[in-house]
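Work package 3, deliverable 3.1, input record:
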Amino acid sequence: MNNKFPNITVDAIVFSYFNEKIHVLLIKRNFDPFKDNYALPGAFIKDNESADDAVYRMLKDETGLNLEYLEQLYTFTKPDRDPRQRIISIAYYGLINATNQVLKTSQHATEVSWVEIKEAFKRNLAFDHKEIMLYALQRLRNKLQYEPIGFDLLPEYFTIGELYNLYCAVLDKGLDRRNFTRKILSFELLKETSFKTGGHVGRKAKIYEFDKINYDRLKKVGFNFEI
Amino acid sequence: MNNKFPNITVDAIVFSYFNEKIHVLLIKRNFDPFKDNYALPGAFIKDNESADDAVYRMLKDETGLNLEYLEQLYTFTKPDRDPRQRIISIAYYGLINATNQVLKTSQHATEVSWVEIKEAFKRNLAFDHKEIMLYALQRLRNKLQYEPIGFDLLPEYFTIGELYNLYCAVLDKGLDRRNFTRKILSFELLKETSFKTGGHVGRKAKIYEFDKINYDRLKKVGFNFEI
DNA sequence: CCAAAAGTGTTAGGAGTACACCCATGT
DNA sequence: ACATGGGTGTACTCCTAACACTTTTGG
């Protein structure tokens, strides 16, 4: 298999949002070291693929998931971070709209699951994966506030209320809903659709779509998204 | 020498500030590939040293410099970024107060020099080092505005005017000096010393010192440095 | 006395924040 | 009718940004 990089891996922390909570993808380890602990999905980098490509391939193979967003996080290099042999890990974090994807298992990852983020930190995590997860969560929190990445955790069509709940869940604090709504709408990056929610009690909500094309255009002109 | 990682390097982009301009450390290459081009200082990672340690060691060995500040930037992994063989590079950026350090050459780096940043971008740069430099400059500009790292480019004792000029140089734009001064002083993180400048025309300036201990304390309580 | 750099206040406009009620709908 | 979630306006405060003259010093 891979020969050039027998000691460099990519590890990915994949965030999803459902049931009004943030979740991360964890794999239960069936072998030592750290048997029965949980670990982030990861793989060795193969010849002729970039680290980004390796993450996409690995997630596809091991879990069947296709990310909406992927970003390199940090490279972890402590000589003793793996007890067997020295391994350098290039860590990534990714975002996914979990509602229309099916989680598969594979030969390597027989037990893969979405774990609510607070629960995940309580689990026994292999290697330095707790540290990586913490780093990723901080990056997600920061980035959510000055780049429109929250939309990558939601379906294509969503309500302001869903977006609001997502922000509260990630930042783990309450926000003022009126101020939030005003701010988000002031960017004029949400396209109002003709749909409305239904099928549940309460007033029907307007359904929006994020205008990515317009955002990319504005960004070039120096526009700043900031919640 | 190193056996575990024959294809992982660290590259460092070191910034310094003097003559009212930002400079970066470049090495002129004496060998192919990219003979006579300029490159960032770099080295292979040795067994039993972290990437951070490798950067400190490499800079000490090749240039004799001791950094005030070092931060991991990004890991570059494109399979063809080195024409000879596949190499992954963990890039760092560092800050240094160049005024009291002497630049040495070494066997590997016979021509090492500080190059003014705009001039540096005009040079022929080896590998993907232009891309790395651009990435580093953007990070420096961002970080300067919400963390007090500018002080690491200045001597221990400095005037508000020097700090102001540094900010203008890094951000490459004019700022309002009165607003800048008010903002900086409002943090109460500059300790006024009993010294004053002298030896040149113009009014003598107060000399300050950055109160790092107090900053670290405030940061824990949730203080936010932001220019 | 002149050139150079330091130092210093005020104001107007915009952004952020805090706050509470009515509306539409399904059960 | 009532419970649930959606939608909206105002006032106050604080921060930002714009702006120019006086002071001190060395030459």
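The mean pLDDT of chain A is 95.
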